[in-house]
Fold this sequence. Notes:
291 residues, alpha/beta, Rossmann fold, 2 domains, 7-stranded mixed beta sheet, 12 helices
Amino acid sequence: MHHRLKIHVNCIPCLLRQALRVANIRDPKLSREETKALLNCIMDVLKDDAILEALPAKTGQRVYQAMGEFLQDGDIFSAVKYKSNEIAEAMYPRLVEKVQSSGDPLKTAVNIAIVGNLIDFGTHLDYDLEQAIDDLQLAIDHFDDLREDLQRAKTVLYIADNAGEIFFDKILVTEILRQFDVNIVFSVRAGPILNDATMDDVRLAGIDAIATIIEGTQSPGLIMDEASAEFKAIYLAADIIIAKGQGNFEALSERPRNENLYFMLKAKCDVMEAYFNVPIGASILLHWKRS
């Protein structure tokens, strides 16, 4: 079923659209000329044919580093991350209540964590979050495998994705710790990249009080070749690895398949739609087994 996930040519205009979005959320907005210069800067990265053989996360890293250098801003999504955390923190008590009143708290906590990946915090939330959790249907659903593996596990490595979303992750981390005798290591990015969660976000969410925190890599998806020796050792020793989001899937699906690796993500584009054979917007809890 699965094949090597290289960057697709469709990713190239998508990355340019992301650069355009960055230009539009700047305060003050970039001028027409400045926006064109930013796009030129990104096209310089994307015209390099070497990206066809590189991990998508590596190309994303190069693109966002080039944006940061052009804008002379080391954290170009800081305002978006702040707003994401603010919105998610306000929702958190309702999410706790939802798990506590559930007939299957672990399943509800997993659904909440996946819904966290569905939300684009750059847009306004004009739907009922609790309804979204109740209505969540997984296009690929290996929840029963996860529950079974958690019963045997001693260590869990949880690789986070976005700011804001990590409040939803905290719900799942808390429930795993409540039900199972495990230690959890929670991984965030090693520095600002896109709207991904970093050490500042994890402290704001209070996850450092319940789990061991480790930094991965400063890339939109964990690039193992750039990870520290400490991270690699934890990755190899973990009984279960839970990785959130498309970026982490694109990067880690390149690793040898492990019985203990789980991906939670939303299929956000036509490349993922074709790869998984699911519709865009579909929710996935995938046990990345050896075949």
